[in-house]
Amino acid sequence: MVPAETSRHELRALIQNMLDETPAGYVLRISRCDHLKQPVIAPWDARYKLDGIPAHSLVQSRDTLFISPEFFPLDSLADRLWEEFGDAVSDGRFSIPASSRHYCSLTQDDIATIQESQRHEFDEDA
Predict the structure, then answer these.
(1) Alpha-carbon distance 57 to 19, whole Å?
(2) CB 41 within 8 A of CB 18
(3) 22-43: buried (b, 16+ CB within 10 Å) or exposed (e) per residue?
(4) CA neighbor of 18 nearest in space, from 81, 79, 76, 65
(5) pTM of the model
């Protein structure tokens, strides 16, 4: 188990990284999954017009995040997410099966899916 304040700090850093380090040609959308009712962050081609409130990266001089109004404003996003699932994050429970809708440790299938997606990350030829 990781101390809560360490995890909160890492979550804030992750959000800042998403704002400033999203690869050129892509944007990220932060919204709630219709099926699981959980927060999700999904990459999109930057050419698409996304729903949500745009967040501008000063580093990239462009809008890189599109945030569902329930998670806005950006400066309180980490706190809002932390309230919702901070305990699960601190405990290392990152998977949420549709059958249970409760966070649990990653399964071998989850790990295999993550590893496979990393092979194709931002690789249009894969």
Answers:
(1) 6
(2) yes
(3) beeeebbbbbeeeeeeebeeee
(4) 65
(5) 0.76
